[in-house]
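Contributing new records

If you add data, match the layout below exactly. Sequence lines come first and carry their own label; structure lines follow with theirs. Keep one chain per record. Anything else will be rejected by the validation script.
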Amino acid sequence: MTDLPNLAGSVDVVLAIVGAWLAVGAVGVVSLRKLEFVARTLFPLGGVFGLALFAVGVTAIGAPAQSIVLPIGLPDLPFHFRLDSLSAFFIATIGAVAAGVSAFAAGYFRTGEGTAPGLLCLQYHLFLASMVLVVLADDAYAFMVMWETMALSSFFLVITNHRIDEIRRAGYLYLLLAHVGAIAILLCFGVLQAGSGDYSFAGMRAQELSPAWSSAAFLLALLGFGAKAGLVPMHVWLPEAHPAAPSPVSALMSAVMLKTAVYGMLRVSFDLLSIQLWWWGVVLLAVGLFTAVYGVVFAAVQVDMKRLLAYSSIENIGLVFAGIGLAIVFCAYRMGAMAGLALTAMLYQVLSHAFFKSLLFLGTGSVMHATNERSLGRLGGLIRYMPWVAWLSLVGVLASAGLPPLGGFVAEWLLLQSFLFTPGLPSAFLNMLIPVLAALVVLVAALAGYTMVKFFGVVFLGQPREDGLSRARDAGAWERAGMLWLVAGCAALGLAPTLVIGLIDPVTRELVAEGIGPAVASSGWLVVPVASERASYGPLIFLLGILASVVLAFLLVRRIYHARSRRVAPWDCGYPWQNARMQDTAEGFGQPIRQIFEKMFRMQRHLPSPFDTKPRYRVVITDKFWHWLYLPIATLVNHVSRIVGMLQRGRISVYLMYSFITLIVLLVAVTR
């Protein structure tokens, strides 16, 4: 029974949309091999339900919380679901991204992907449904069931092209770390219920845990949700799984699945735990900013498009967790307004990243389908042959680089404002530390811009590096429609920050009882996070300034400069035999970063022979954490498995000997 029995509550509508997604998946199984029907009918239908979910989520933000109990599951363990402002925000994000990605998928999926189209449709919509139910769950049992469903469905999506060994290995690595994280989350819920036996979130809220037990629950949550989010050193699955999955799946995993971990961290830290300690925030700041720096540095040196975007997602998630840590520090010192600002910046980053990163993954998917290449070293000049993809991807690039007037700039600007307002903290240590961390945020933003220049410049600008690129064809109508929806989201987040912050305000008030919505709303067309004398930002001013600069430059070049100029061949530097290989490569672009941050990489250089007629210099960069942490663990597990395997000889005499020895030991123990 719902809390509002006289109304058709929003939670009922959300569950109805989830049921519709599952029905679409079931129809896909019935139409197992009918690619045209699955792609052109079922995926667009799923996108329509995504739009409906987005609308329901937006309208539910700020409304009274609604609960419902479904008599499914085990006896005496029904599923509890609850829709409040926090869950509604993430549901709206999932719906908005799902609408664009589903439209793109209608033109993307084709024969030869590995999994049958109908089965892929079921896995895709089950993945969407499970993510919604994760953020809707109101007890540990329902949460863990939906969390595991999300992990398993995304695993099968990752290994869509399961005939390739590398893809299967990436999927198994992802599944392994997902279950390690799930165990930590389950232990966290065990601590939160405090021996009461009540695993509902309402029962956990009623518990008054000691600081020690609260800290244990927080650290377990950080381990569990950090493994899903890709925090360093639990990030190793992400650069492997994202490139292995089809591009629409990579977009969903990066844009919204990682955000379910952010949701879980917020739910535990600000809702289920009754206290926040300052050192929790410091831990999150340290882990988050180290993850951000690590991710952006590795992104800058990648030569694979999807691996570059995967490491960029690690960077963005690091900034998000740093924002959570800053909010916890403010809450610990009862600075509610500053906590509201930090949470607003963090949630804005969540929303902005969902749009621009899914847009970039979809752009890479179009490039891969058109060229059969994802190596940056074999691309170039595609703006001539794929203008739609190039210009739409440029919006995602600019948003990811944090440039105005797009949403990425607003998110990073608000986060930086949160750091700059910290001198009011009563701790001298934190007043000294946090400005240093703010400098790291600026460094991450600068390197992110550098990485995006490399990504767009190498892929779309210059000359084609391979002869076959001239046969590339632009994205189709469905793919353009999906990307245009995401472009509209990036632009809306940048040009209407006052409206977006007003939408986020009920969420921050639910978590920390404070928000910056009234201050921003009262500032009119300027965005003022705290006070106009401190800082302000006018997106329309930036937009008008950019447009005026473009028009002025166009007029000056076309009307004045070109009026007295003539066209000649470009200067060839005294070497007339130039070709596309003489352009700056992805490796060359990343060389300064490799030299500055050399200690962070494990590099293998492959030098060409002096007698090679077409010499190619190649540098292979791998993750030190993989060799320092995960390979030793894998070696130890294999060693233990071999020892245990020696006990299984398959001979009855050996098993009888084990039983006899066990009986003797038990008899000796009993007689004593």
